[in-house]
Known about the structure:
This protein folds into two domains: 6-155, no CATH class; 157-198, no CATH class. Helix content is 45%, strand content 2%. It has nine helices and two strands; from the N terminus they run H-H-E-H-E-H-H-H-H-H-H. The longest helix has 17 residues, at 82-98.
Amino acid sequence: xxxxxxxxxxxxxxxxxxxxxxxxxxxxxxxxxxxxxxxxxxxxxxxxxxxxxxxxxxxxxxxxxxxxxxxxxxxxxxxxxxxxxxxxxxxxxxxxxxxxxxxxxxxxxxxxxxxxxxxxxxxxxxxxxxxxxxxxxxxxxxxxxxxxxxxxxxxxxxxxxxxxxxxxxxxxxxxxxxxxxxxxxxxxxxxxxxxxxx
Length: 198
């Protein structure tokens, strides 16, 4: 992936998707297209004992987004959701091959769109719908890691986002009286309680 995106640097900075800035800031071994080899303690920071995460063959910007999310999970202290990320990557690859529509990025894809893609993926292979456990894996990807990706890709003030979570966005100020940064709120919630901008 390192050489694939050189053409993006030739455009003016205002036209570059922020994911490429985030991707370039990743340590080289986290940029892919295969994550795992060269990453220290890979087995201890990942779920399911998968030896690697293959992000090759994905359309832009999916591989960069998944690589960033994997690195964020490892940095956050949660285990990297290798199985869920591999499944999402396979779903997108199959959608490309079969001409099925999908969101242009993980940032633009919500859980409902991912669940619909997952159902189609299973049915297109002649299988039943995903189990609740399989759904849960994909659902987990659309939690903290995706919110952190959206926050990191947003160059404006944090309060312009639709979801605020201190764990996902270090720009959100916390006072000494705040609980641990593990609770989020939507703009509507904060306006009702008077803790956010009006």
